[in-house]
Amino acid sequence: MPFVEDLDVFINDDTPGYAHAIIGVNTVTGLFDNGYTGIDLVGSSDPTFLCKSSDIPLIADGSSITLNGTVYKVAGAPQPDGTGLVLLQLRKSS
């Protein structure tokens, strides 16, 4: 039996990190995280965007996504979690 759940319960404006992303001509809601990652003396941010798989059926490595006025590129293949959500690893576009 497939997983059936109202994912809007988990992704809504009361959820920390809630954001609107622009992907192509579509606005997609999800959870944006730009946490700090540090290894030894080198540190950087690790931006990710978690959203419903159904909202981004054609997203791929290298696709552009705009969050909070910053343009990012999808870095690597989308990572579906098997529940209807997908995690996008991002890198700042230059």
What structural keywords apply?
7 strands, mainly beta, globular, 94 residues
Strand content: over 45%
How many beta-strand elements?
A: 7
Mean pLDDT: 87
Widest sheet: strand order? 1-2-3-7-5-4
Multimerization state = single chain
Q: Spell the H/E element sequence.
A: EEEEEEE
Q: Kindly name the structural category.
A: mainly beta
Shape: globular
Helix content: under 10%
- What low-confidence regions span 5 or more consecutive residues with pLDDT below 50? none
Largest sheet: 6 strands, antiparallel, barrel
In angstroms, what separates the terminal alpha carbons?
Answer: 44 Å
Number of helices: 0
What gyration radius follows from the Cα positions, in whole Å? 14 Å
